[in-house]
Predict the structure.
Amino acid sequence: MKKFLYILGAIILGLMAVLTFNTLRMTSRQVAPQALDLPEISEADFARLGGAVRFPTISYNEDAEPDSAAFRGFHQYLRETFPRVHQQLALDTINGYSLLYTWEGSDQTAKPVILMSHQDVVPVDQPTLEDWEAGPFEGRVTDTHIIGRGTLDDKVSLMGILESVERLLAEGFRPRQTLYLAFGHDEEVGGGNGAARIAEHLKAMGVQAAMTLDEGGFLAEGIVPGVEAPVAMVNLAEKGFASFRLIVETRGGHSSQPPRENTIGMLAQAIVDLENNQRPYKLVEPITYQFEYLGPELPFLKRMAFANPWLLKKPILKALNAHTTTAPTIVEGGVKNNVIPTVAEATINFRILPGETVSSVQSHIEATISDKVRVEPVGFLTDPSPVSEIDSDAFRTLEQTIRSVFPDAVVVPGLVGGGTDARYFYDLSDEVYRFYPIRIDSEGLTRFHGIDEKISKENYAEVIRFTHALIRALNQDPQTP
């Protein structure tokens, strides 16, 4: 028995030594900040964002026609607000409402850069209006905030980009690389008529960009346990999106004589089976990069888990939501309380982890539920995006700019669970990233698509300064140190 205990003790000591060695070897990946000359921001900048909010450029659903008065009014507002942009950059209107600005670079051999945003916003639930500090399309500017739909998603980055370009033009700056500003009009309903058409247009022109930057990453404050500094989430990819309709059809009947297999009961069982048989958590790119970048910034014991994923990865993967998620979102069936319906349906939404596909998810559903339940894909479907590189010049420039504008921030590559217009630009861009420096805490997360959407003046000033610095950094002469 003693010998066994000695052996067991030696194994435990050896394991602890390996865990500790790996933890001590995990060092910070953060680059050193550089001094930057950042522009001054005035009350006029905040007022202009407030003005943009006043145009209710709402996307309701994929089939609804855009509100031409709102979008045309917004376009006219941009022309009046940014005169240099509209005098010196070429502007193409794509598919009636989407905007593509072209700022010709001085070096035609250099690959261009695409900066993205979108014009449209989501609707506001009318019963919530009293819970807003100001009307969602009033565009009120207070002592501390700009309030309204689009101040977080996503007129904030659109206006921030145009503010930066207007300033750079006034400074006499000309980019070395051609710069495209791509502003779709239907991102909130999939982007099929907006960003997708812009991408087709650029591809037909033979454009191959060095980098595309879109929304989808932010400065997380107090959201990552163990990290007090803001975490700059630079998302390299996005999950896929698919919804499937589960359909049960029976002969129905009277509720006083229910059959052994009830229409709604069969549907309910299928939903329960899917929720009880979730897709597995997996350590895939770019989740691996989150371990490498976030781990060194954590306290020792938490860092140990990140440094030894071969042993301790499961709780971290759960915390990072690193699997294909399953979410029942719509249930329909029944017409009267004493009638067993002949048809009952449910819609299940999946956000698909890289490495899986729409097809593999459908196969999972069919293998998990009863073959008496019909499965049909419904609506917008897309596989996960490719994963962009962290070893590219474009990522290094983006990373350096973030650290220089936000020296206290920790840059962490990652994966976004939601969808963005960036998905359409992989075929014409070497790298596609998602990040604008919108500060989000746990309360702020509820304001996206929610009640009382607003951004602080200080944060909007940071958005402008960041895009100004990034355009300059991307277009430095390659010989400049």
About this structure: DSSP finds 14 helices and 18 strands in the chain. The mean pLDDT is 94. The two ends are 66 Å apart (CA to CA).
